[in-house]
Amino acid sequence: MKILMIGDIVGRVGRQIVANRLPELKEQLGLDFVVANIENAAAGFGITSDCGREILSAGVDVMTSGNHVYDKKEGIGYVESELRLIRPANYAPEAPGRGMWLQRTAMGVGVAVINIQGRVFMPPSDCPFRMIDKLLNEVGNRASIILVDHHAEATSEKMAMGRYLDGRVTAVVGTHTHVQTADEQLLPGGTAYITDLGMTGPHSGVIGMDKESVLGRFLRGMPTRFDQAEGQGKLNGLVIEADDQSGRANSVERISIGIAAS
What we know:
This protein is α/β, with parallel strands linked by helices.
């Protein structure tokens, strides 16, 4: 199975890049399954049903998220109702939505996608390590391909999760920082890993936001509304080739594709 995991989609530019390039990439790369983080898809903060439908119609199979998933009040119901959209599993049990997607593909391959959130420099949540153990027990033998989006700030926490899950899942990818790291690798146990997928959206600003509004916050220290950046964008992600039977990753390739936004 060939899988693409896409870094945080940011705003209109990010959605446009996915719509314009993903169908072509699926054909060129022979992709079987696509996962994308969408927590910043609606004007840079949160998700709405319109934005979610746009992303799914472009060819994304499962959408993961993170700490901004509830930022749009009108999107909370969508998080609760759309089964292809998951939020961090280590949120409170009463939080809208679910933390895992588990199904068989059209080719009959069992696939699980799990979303967890880190705790270092992040909002409070339950232990992601204990939660992932619980979910893997639930998966059991129902899926050979297991993909984990670890939405976290600290590099060390993401790397620790990768080592903790090596040989137990197909891939562990980090999201949240919007800066793609150059440490893609196959861990000794056969798990694909990268500390951060990066960002799919406008790269002309500061992690997707207009540079002037961000600089204003740093220079004056006053509350500032962050507007999404525009212009030149990139699709950041990771292509993973995995064995359908064992679930082991056989190869991993980091991608960063530029495209002009209209």
